[in-house]
Every structure is written in C-alpha cells, then in structure tokens.
Amino acid sequence: MDRAVIAPQTSDVLIRPTNAQDVDAMVAIYTHHIARGVDPSAMHDIEPIEPEDLKRRRKNFRDRRFPHLAAELNGTVIGYAYAVQFRKRPAYRYTVKHSIYIHHAHQRAGIGRRLLPALIDACAAAGFRQMIGYVDAGNGPSLRLHESCGFRPVGHLPGVGLKFGKWTDVVMVQRSLGLGVAAPPDTWPAPEDSYAG
Ligand SMILES: CC(C)(COP(=O)(O)OP(=O)(O)OC[C@H]1O[C@@H](n2cnc3c(N)ncnc32)[C@H](O)[C@@H]1OP(=O)(O)O)[C@@H](O)C(=O)NCCC(=O)NCCS
C-alpha cells in the first residue's frame, strides 16, 4: 500500500459509505464552511444547499459508482468526502475530482488524514486513475492534508475566486490512482475513445 495513504490507528472514527440519514449532518457541516468561504469548488453555490438537493446528488453519485464517504464518531457524522467525474465528456471518465469537509469542532484531529486516504482507496478500487482537487491557495490545512496524501500541485489559477471582496487564487492538486498511466484501463479500448474529447 502507498505509504501516503496509511491512516492513523488511534481513532475511534468509523469511515463508511454515506446513507440518506447522513444528509442533515452533511448539510450542517457544509453550510458552516461555505459561510466562511473556504471551498473554492463551491463558489458558484450562491444559494444555501437544500437537504433534498444533497440527497439527490448523493444517490446519483453512488448509483454511478462515485465514492461518497462519511466519518462517524459515536454515531455522529463529523465529516464527509466524495468524488465526482472530473469532466463530463467520456475521455475523462477515469479521472475524478473530490471534496472533503470536516465538522469545524473536529478539525485538526486527524479526521481528514483518515477520510481522504479512504476516499483515495475507494476511487482506486472503483477503477479511476487520476484524482484532482481544487484548493484555495490560502487554505494551508487543506494543502498540507493533500500533500500528506500524495497529491502534488499541478497548477496555480490566479484570481479565479472572489471571497469577501478579494480575488483569490486556487491551487490544483493531483495524484494518480492504482496503475495511473502505467497501463491502459481494464475496459480498454472502448469504442467512444475515438471521438471523445
Ligand atoms: C482541510 C480539512 C479537510 C483538513 O482536515 P482535518 O481533519 O482538519 O486535518 P487533519 O487533522 O487530518 O490534518 C491534516 C494535515 O494538515 C495539518 N493541519 C490541519 N489543520 C491545520 C492547521 N490549522 N494549521 C496547520 N496545519 C494543519 C495537520 O497537521 C496534518 O498534517 P500532516 O499530514 O503533516 O500530519 C478540514 O480542516 C476542513 O474540513 N476544512 C474546511 C473545509 C475545507 O477547507 N475543505 C477542503 C476544501 S479543498
């Protein structure tokens, strides 16, 4: 196993797939962080997220084999992470992008270091080959977490965000999964590869 994805053994935190009952807790975690403007990938979400919307999205991702995981402590969801398709066109079907949120009262306790490696493993097991994250350049904890989990910065997007009246930069981070580019995927070649762009 990749050294970067070995999780701490000391925690009582359970990492498991999300279910419909987790939605309220996930909405609460998300809403707190979005109000603080920490997630560059959510900057288009000017409306507060609705539980029904998150329920639908969660089911849709799960049905399409995109991992959607929760971190649970004593029966309470204290974090979640999920992957979605990087881009819609079929050429990009082996690449995912992801998001991760830890409840504000449980940050810096090693939960991200449990949850993100689990998401990485789940994405690799599902057959994806590349994983991409967009991190606000000022989000030191997230940059550190991603570095610890084997991501490297592959792009700097200056001035793409506007938060609280200030332009902000985003760092694009990436890591490979499984065999990465060392071998074609199991289903290779697929007929649509000839035209997918
Ligand atoms: C970013 C986030 C996911 C990190 O999860 P976490 O559980 O708080 O982080 P962990 O305790 O597992 O720590 C991960 C690493 O970051 C470091 N870190 C965490 N918080 C830190 C802080 N405030 N300052 C400096 N380093 C920090 C840890 O020391 C650890 O480093 P290591 O891997 O070298 O040991 C979490 O803080 C969060 O949900 N933030 C708000 C939402 C967000 O920013 N999501 C990511 C969007 S890209």
Uncertain stretches of 5 or more adjacent residues: 1-10
Name the CATH superfamily classification: Gcn5-related N-acetyltransferase (GNAT)
Q: How many separate domains make up the residues? A: 1
- Into which percent range does the helicity of residues fall? 25-40%
Number of E-type strands: 7
Widest beta sheet: strand line-up: 1-2-3-4-5-7-6
CATH class: Alpha Beta
Bound molecules: coenzyme A
Largest sheet: 7 strands, mixed
Kindly report the CATH topology: Aminopeptidase
Radius of gyration, whole Å:
17 Å
What percent strand?
Answer: 25-35%
- CATH architecture call: 3-Layer(aba) Sandwich
The SSE order reads EHHEEEHEHEE
Distance between the termini: 33 Å
From the spread of the alpha carbons, the general shape counts as globular
- Class derived from helix and strand content: alpha+beta
Number of helices: 4
Describe this structure in words.
With 197 residues, the chain is α+β, with helices and mostly antiparallel strands. It has one domain (10-186): Gcn5-related N-acetyltransferase (GNAT) (Aminopeptidase, 3-Layer(aba) Sandwich), CATH 3.40.630.30. The protein is 25% helix and 29% strand. Strand 6 and strand 7 form a beta hairpin. The radius of gyration is 17 Å and the shape is globular. The two termini are 33 Å apart. Mean pLDDT is 87; it is low at 1-10.
What's the topology here?
Blueprint: E1 14-17, H1 23-35, H2 51-63, E2 68-73, E3 76-85, E4 95-102, H3 111-125, E5 130-136, H4 140-148, E6 152-163, E7 166-176
Parallel strand pairs: 4-5
Antiparallel strand pairs: 1-2, 2-3, 3-4, 5-7, 6-7
Bound molecules: coenzyme A (COA).
The site of coenzyme A has 22 residues, from strand 4, helix 3, strand 5 and helix 4.
